[in-house]
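Let us practice reading a record.
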Amino acid sequence: MRATALILVDESRQRLRAKTIERMEIGLLDSGISAARLIPGAATRLRREEEHTLCPQIEYEPRVAPWFRRWRRETLRKLLEPLGPDLVHVIGRTSWPLAFELGQVFSIPVLLECWSARDAAAAPRGRRAGGVGAFIGGTRALAEQLRRRVDPARVALIPVGVPVPASPRQVDTSGATPSIAIIGRGESLPAYRAALKALARRVEDGQELQIVLEIAGPRSHEIWRLARDLSLLDRTSTFDNAERLRELVLQCQVLLAPDHGGEIRPLFLEAMGRAMPIATVGDPVMDAIGEDRVHVVARPNQPAAWEEAVAAVTGDQDAAIQLGRRAWEWVREHHASSATASLRAELYERVLSGGSIPLDSHRVG
């Protein structure tokens, strides 16, 4: 099928999930679908191909006064018209209004993809959903949440795709100085406090650690102060966006995830795909979290629970390897980029041809 998709991503996901969006575009190109990405920027303009972008990228003003919206709409129409768009694929609810505007301007359907419980709970329905060609849930749990809110016949399950190696990495957690990455949304301060206290106790007991700590979200400053007060900063590398340093995170031996905030984190899935031993809180949105493939911390606000979790993923090398292998197998089966790309192309074809929307393939999800 030949088609052109406008990929519209809101500010937070453009900043935190750029690699995932790029992989999605590659998959679409491999399926014969042209893509152009609309990205939040300081101006409304087209990035030329000589700037070495994978697909044409159109910058737009994400926040404009009501009296400037018509100007933005007309400017985008002139930039996009030569591309001949067939549909708008939007990720992130702050970009929904612009997606619907573009859908009306070009008389094309809008595909609304949800990566979080918050987005699924806000999905438009009734007359407000008139321009939606399909709703997409990025995990089975999100697809089910959407089906309870909107017409189930318009909901598709297409898991977020990540690259998965051909064979699992055997992570060595038996070294004298294990490296531990901590990623999360920075919302649950009690869980961060408990996890950091657990690591501080191991240091007090003479364990050498190297810590890579993502400090992001509404409680970022408080999390930094926790690390300082626990005397962990001298052995900790901190950063505000794990996606920008994803290879550093993925080279660590262990991953801790104190919170998910009801949102899919592609980097977490990619760590599973790299067979990293993981200790994490549970989250109903993340189908990937299961006792047989990650260590689930049942009492995330208790330091003792995190001490037990860290001991479980670092103390027994063979058990850690088996845990990582099961994580790799699950992500390979359910979230491999190659499989999800073909599902997106199939959904596009169904929407544009007026065929049946429900898509819940046994291949992924």
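A brief commentary: The first strand starts at residue 3 and ends at 9.
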